[in-house]
Predict the 3D structure of the following.
Amino acid sequence: MTGILNRSRAGNDVGTLERKVWKRLDRVIDPHTGTSVVRMGLVTGVSLEETEGGYVATIMFRPDTPACPVLEALKREMVSSVERLRRVRRATVTVSLPGGDADAG
């Protein structure tokens, strides 16, 4: 019975951390629109992988145009914001460009 409780608690911990990641991402504002990248629908997902020493967060991001002029700045801000969370060891952004190309970064 204890194993089930531990797994359940771990699942709750990951869920709590994922909510915190989304909350941090919601504070990242697109300078052209003044709206958060989450509310614009540009963040399409978040995954967390447990590693020694913390979690690796992968942020799935789809800019509205392939030539987004602030893409690199938004990526840096998302990574910086999420890496400030105590249990996140590293964050990365995977960009899925309109038209189907993907770029991990």
About this structure: The first helix runs from residue 2 to 25. The CA atoms of residues 53 and 99 lie 37 Å apart. Helices lie at 2-25, 71-83. The two ends are 41 Å apart (CA to CA).
